[in-house]
Amino acid sequence: MALRIGFVGTGGIANWHLGHLSKIEGTKVVSVCDVNKERVEAAAIDWKAKPYTDYERMLNEQELDALYICTPPFAHGDAEISSAERGIHLFIEKPISLSLNKAKEIEISIMKNKIITSVGYQRRYEDTVDKIRFNLKGSIPGLFMGYYLGRIPGVDWWRRKEKSGGQMIEQTTHIFDLARYLFGEVKNVFAVERRGLIEDVKDYNIEDASSVTLVLESGLVGTIYSACFLSYAEKVGMDIYLKDRKIEYDGGIKIIELNQERRISSSTDAGLIEDQVFIEAVKSGDSSNIKSDYSDGLKTLEVTLAANESIKKEKVIKL
User: Fold this and answer.
1) Is 218 found in the same domain as 168?
2) Are residues 47 and 98 located together in one domain of the fold?
């Protein structure tokens, strides 16, 4: 019998996941929910699912095995708890919340009800990231620099700090998460921001650029840069410096040594794999192959929230 799947949120990221699910056997999207009636009705037609504008009504009327929560950051919270209390397994898009206290409340409900969860940090599933982890075994990195540099995304809520959390929380979170995945936990965070470059965008109140220095428990230091004021192509990735080599990651990887360099391209669809792993975990009850569950995603959220706090208080935040 096919897994019965629902969606809360039917925007671009939801359609990305829906496309993956159409390739995964044993799944059926039975219901979709969005506060935008026109959008949810269009999604319902596309995916032959029942539309809702109230997630509580959907949860009451549908017997779901799993739910994808693909809402903007400010809308996370109650739907996760309501679903967990009903025993529905959850795929939750990042960032998981704008509030650490709310995220911890959700985590308690997830743990209490033994819910399988996956958070949308698909870069962890890239074959090139696996190769970086393998390359780093037995080595001691000295420094890393991460980047998420580009334009303002074309959704209104992203431009508002109170709705998106800002670029570090909503977008560069992928690079913060990658740093944790590759190097371990963060103990100190210090961040600064730049404003005043973007003056022609309506209702814009987030940082134009930021620089966040991290000190990890291992002693490794690194800085992650964000910018959304550019009008040209993005730079998204990370540079890792060791005594005898440099690893450049941008989806693919380049390993630079004294007399040679190697380029390795990615050959996987990380987003599809991420969804396949979640679906298999729900079917089998074994979540061991999920690379970022809710509790892990909460740790990444804590780092990015600390960066915002550091900017506000102009001091180092200790985790």
Assistant:
1) yes
2) yes
The answer to whether residue 218 sits within a structural domain is: yes
Our count of domains for the chain comes to: 2
C-alpha span between 112 and 107 (Å, rounded):
8
Q: What is the pLDDT of residues 2-30, one digit of tens each?
A: 999 999 999 999 999 999 999 999 999 99
Query: Do 181 and 241 sit in the same domain of this protein?
Result: yes
Listed residue (12, 16, 75) closest to 270, CA to CA: 16
- Crossing angle between the packed helical segments 294-313 and 173-183, to the nearest 10 degrees: 120
Nearest to 246 by CA among 151, 132, 158, 163: 132
Residue 235: count of CB within 10 angstroms of its CB: 13
Predicted confidence at residue 233, as pLDDT, reads: 80
Q: What angle do CA 77, 73, 18 make, to 5 degrees?
A: 90
Which residues span the domain enclosing 276? 3-120+271-291
Asked, for residue 297, whether it belongs to a domain, the answer is: no
* CB within 8 Å of 153: residues ≥ 6 apart: 171
DSSP 285: S
Does residue 296 lie in a domain region?
no
Tell me: the pLDDT tens digits for 144-182? 999 999 999 999 999 999 999 999 999 999 999 999 999
- Percent of all residues in the chain with a pLDDT value above 70, rounded to a whole number: 100
Using alpha carbons, list the distances in angstroms from residue 52 to 40, 48, 61, 86, 243. Answer: 7, 13, 10, 18, 56
Residues 228 and 195 in one domain: yes
pTM higher than 0.90: yes
